[in-house]
Amino acid sequence: MSYNTNQWQNKLADACQSYQMPLPVYHVVSDRRGGRTAWSCRVEVGGELIQARFWFDGKNLENAKEDAAELALSRLLTSTRSPSSATSRGSIW
Q1: What range(s) does the DRBM domain occupy (predicted)?
Q2: What percentage of residues in the chain have a pLDDT greater than 90?
Q3: Domains of the chain as residue ranges with CATH
Q4: Alpha carbon distance 32, 65 (integer Å)
Q5: What is the pLDDT of residues 52-87, one digit of tens each?
């Protein structure tokens, strides 16, 4: 899996600005696995913490951020389009 540099991160930031939400905050996490370390990312958007689907080698850490941003953007767009969206409850989520 390979991502274009910051494609999803940029789209997520644009969506947050469009919905007048604070910009996303990325949290890099690691897990020691044998002699190696796996890296992933969580992104905080609208008070929610969304975990990336995959773990990556350290040289591919940007892919972890992109993965988390893609999931967060999908969730953000889905929640704002659904008829029972959180917007009607006073929250974006």
Answers
A1: 10-76
A2: 72
A3: 25-79 (3.30.160.20)
A4: 19
A5: 999 999 999 999 999 999 999 999 999 876 555 444
pLDDT of residue 89: 43
Provide CB contacts within 8 A for 67, sequence distance 6+.
1, 3, 8, 40, 41, 52, 53, 54
CB of 15 closer than 8 Å to CB of 73: yes
pLDDT at 33: 87
The pLDDT tens digits for 21-45 are 999 999 999 999 888 999 999 999 9
Measured from the Cβ of residue 64, the count of other Cβ atoms closer than 10 Å reads: 28
